[in-house]
């Protein structure tokens, strides 16, 4: 006896009616994960901006304090004498004429003063760097008895004020019949620049691992090859840094140049700018500012050209190895 299985037909399910708020809710749900990180990023940017705002203000003020005097100096070099006396100091020149520069070079003898500075500064600087680097190498790389005492002697020379030695040096130069020439400036610049150069170069040589020199010595290098081919290339950036520091000191020197030059034809640029006077001792501001601008812009160009080497040299002796 068989029983027939009865199957109930399935009724199709009716879809639920969509609610009217579901599209808006879905948009809100889909938008909320992306907008929250954006809002947090914007909040962090705002906090970072206001956190750096005091530092940015200080940097802007420092830039203004450095750039504005140079810009004012260059603009003032184009003004006439009447503009200096009657117009405010912040006013622009009425005409962009190079008459002040012509007067400075032709009537004021600025070209002769620059030539004297070049003839004294660059040979003195070369001797200071060569002898100072060699002395730093000998005091720090070579091992010999008494080198620490000699290094302390050079360090003591840094502490001696230049004003104390001017009168004894003038007496010595006078007895040697060197007055009336540029030789007193040459020897004095070398004597004043050597102690600091020796001490700083010894510091830079100390940062070089001694294994480098020992390995070169084992390979058969003598002391001269160690200095010229091993040591000197490793302190090249430091040499640029010390050279520029010494160059600024020698080029901007006024006291030593006034002490040992007794003729207008021997004056350097800084001492020669004192002679830019007119009738009754009145200062000729236009040619004076033109001469100062030539000196300042020239040294600024040299610094910008050697900027990368100077930055590397300032950090070369900070880390050993």
Describe this structure in words.
With 321 residues, this protein is an all-alpha fold. The chain has a domain at 99-316: MetI-like fold (Orthogonal Bundle), CATH 1.10.3720. Helices cover 70% and strands 0% of the residues. The chain has 14 helices and no strands. It has helices at 22-76, 81-86, 99-106, 110-140, 147-159, 166-175, 183-206, 210-218, 223-234, 236-251, 255-260, 269-272, 285-305, 307-316. Helix 4 packs parallel to helix 7 (183-206), helix 5 (147-159) crosses helix 7 and helix 8 (210-218) packs antiparallel against helix 9. Residues 1-21 and 317-321 have low confidence and may be disordered.
CATH topology of the domain at 99-316: MetI-like fold
Assembly level = single chain
Note the total helix count. 14
Low-pLDDT parts are: 1-21, 317-321
What class, by secondary structure content? mainly alpha
Morphology: flat
The residue-averaged pLDDT reads: 82
Strand content: under 5%
The amount of helix comes to over 70%
- Known CATH architecture of the domain at 99-316: Orthogonal Bundle
What's the CATH first level of the domain at 99-316? Mainly Alpha
N to C succession of SSEs: HHHHHHHHHHHHHH
Radius of gyration: 36 Å
Write out the CATH superfamily name of the domain at 99-316. Answer: MetI-like
Distance between the termini: 104 Å
Q: What topology emerges from the helices and strands here?
A:
Blueprint lengths: L21 H55 L4 H6 L12 H8 L3 H31 L6 H13 L6 H10 L7 H24 L3 H9 L4 H12 L1 H16 L3 H6 L8 H4 L12 H21 L1 H10 L5
Helix pairs in contact: 1-13, 3-13, 4-7, 4-10, 5-7, 7-10, 8-9, 10-14
